[in-house]
Amino acid sequence: MQDGTRLAAVDLGSNSFRLEIGRIDHGQFFRTEYLKETVRQGNGLDDDRNLTPEAMQRGWDCLARFGERLAGFNSAEVRAVATQTLREARNRDEFLVRANDVLGFPIDVISGREEARLIYQGVAHALPQGNERRLVIDIGGRSTELILGQGFEPKVMESYRVGSTAWSTRYFPDGQFSKHAFQMAEIAAKAVLDEALNAYRRDAWDIAYGSAGTVGAVGDVLAAAGWPTGSVSREGLDWLQDKLLNAQSADRLRLAGMRDDRRSIIGGGLSILRAVFDLLQVDQMQQATGGLRHGLIFDLIGSTKDQTDVRSKSVQRLVVKFGADPVHGLRVGKVANYLFAQLQTETATPDNPPANLTDERMNRKLNWAAQLHDIGSHISHSDYHKHGAYILDNADAMGFSLSELHKLSLLVLGHRGKLRKLEVDFEDEIFVQQLLTLRLAVILCHARRDPDLNGLVLTRDLENANRFVLGCRAGWAQAFPQSAHLLREEVLAWQKTPWSLALSGC
Question: In whole angstroms, what is the distance from residue 334 CA to residue 312 CA?
Fold first, then answer.
């Protein structure tokens, strides 16, 4: 990445929204601006897990201010993600439609494990290189991420639905502190985190690091009181709990180093941190300067190749885990990419895809859908496309946002059968082209061998932009009667949509 390139990361957390802006200088990122606003969206989920109108408005107002600051940035320079609150919110799409507009950039809702991966990436790049085995902990507003890693590589990642905002609301209503409340909050946190005992056992790591959020708030208070700067100890946690109990309420709490926006949620955060120390046998935790937004920045710096490698590995893991046929998936992908490329350029060949970067990205996603199209076959042969779509909608796949996985799930669901069952935007021309070429590829590869593509040409009708035409060479239909029959069935399927398919010579 060139020196002087501007980069920005937006983190829509459950408690705060953050904007990090900086520039690349000699291959390194240097911050030039940091904005943080306490939005408390995590408190805005009602009993039905819908964001209240007030919570949505607070988020939109903040993002509008961030959007004004990001004016002039291009899409390759900005990454925005949302975490647990929007993972939970049933009406997140309603929020995101306007949020994307006021920010000016798309917001990806990421899975818990993807959040954990990004957190570790941000922490690891801010630490000196070494071979130490790291335990990284990030206690956020509605989730806690635990990661084991070494160097720049995260090895074990998990996200748990326990956070400072949620626990404060549940166990410290009206900001009241009591011994009983702390006991119940710690017991409840341990119940959620109990399954971490085996994966994050004490002999699996050398040093524990705490990233952002609660650990940062606790560390600041302890340092202001004379405890060692940059670390949190068991004794320090006991001291802080005594201070909260003496104050009896958040309103009466007066501690040097305690920010006003942290006072109301410190009880929940402290109880979770104490539970983590007890469960994982942590005696001392170092404060890490890196976090989620820094992980986003390093993803931008690494850009397409590293991120693509992460996604490709995730796809390969899903293929292996669910017993899909990798050879057939690659075959379908090659044919689908060939047909898709024909719609982008008249000069593409099966072994020479277009060089345009946008087309490459679209081809890559189409290829992933092809590799994953039959991952549901071990559950049900007749409805494997439905099961495959369900798997993708509920999978944790590193490198992918939830919306990206949903797009893949729609391609998997739609690669066969009726098209009207798809709740998709048929005005999205790229998606329609991907869907069509994937369906045609599956048909042409129905015998699970490389099809004869000689003379097969897919084009858009010059007189009707919503009409695709698949041309075949003379004699092709007679040589491959079953494929020709399936193609004629495909023509009927597209008649139920705003698009149509016609055959020429097939």
Answer: 15
d(CA 162, CA 177): 19
Query: HSE of 300 in the Cβ direction (CA atoms, 13 Å)?
Result: 28
Domain ranges of the chain: 6-109, 113-290, 303-453
The rounded distance, in Å, linking the Cα atoms of 401 and 407 is 10
**Sheet bearing 107-109, strands edge to edge:** 28-38, 16-25, 6-12, 78-82, 107-109
49 φψ region: left (φ > 0), alpha (ψ -120 to 50), beta (else): left
- Domain with residues 303-453, CATH architecture: Orthogonal Bundle (1.10)
Q: Tell me if 113-290 shares its fold with 303-453.
A: no
CATH numeric code, 6-109: 3.30.420.40
Rounded-to-integer distance, Cα 125 and Cα 146, Å: 17
Q: Is residue 129 packed enough to be buried (19+ CB in 10 Å), middle (13-18) or exposed (0-12)?
A: exposed
pTM over 0.90: no
Q: Please state whether beta strands 231-233 and 457-460 pair in parallel, antiparallel, or not at all (unpaired).
A: unpaired
pLDDT digits (tens, 9 = 90+) for 450-494: 999 999 999 998 888 899 999 999 999 999 999 999 999 999 999
Reported as a single tens digit per residue, the pLDDT across 118-145 is 999 999 988 888 899 999 999 999 999 9
Label residue 373 exposed, middle or buried (CB < 10 Å: 0-12, 13-18, 19+): buried
- 502 membership: H or E segment, kind and range: strand 500-504
Residue 311 near residue 408, CB atoms below 8 Å: no
Q: From 3.30.420.150, 3.40.190.10, 3.40.50.1110, 3.40.50.2300, which CATH number describes the 113-290 domain?
A: 3.30.420.150
Helix axes 292-321, 112-126, angle to 10 degrees: 130
Per-position DSSP letters for 209-261, written without gaps between them = EEESHHHHHHHHHHHHTTSPTTEEEHHHHHHHHHHHHHH-BSTT---TT--HH
- Count helices and strands in the chain by DSSP H and E runs: 19, 14
Residue length of the chain: 506
> Over 50: is that where the pLDDT of 381 sits?
yes
User: 255: number of CA atoms within 13 Å, CB side?
Assistant: 32
Q: What residues contact residue 284 under an 8 Å CB cut-off, 6+ apart?
A: 208, 231, 232, 233, 234
Under DSSP, the state recorded for 127 is S
Provide the sign of the torsion angle of the four alpha carbons 201, 202, 204, 208, taken in this order.
positive
Q: Strand 107-109 to strand 78-82: parallel, antiparallel, or no bridges (unpaired)?
A: parallel
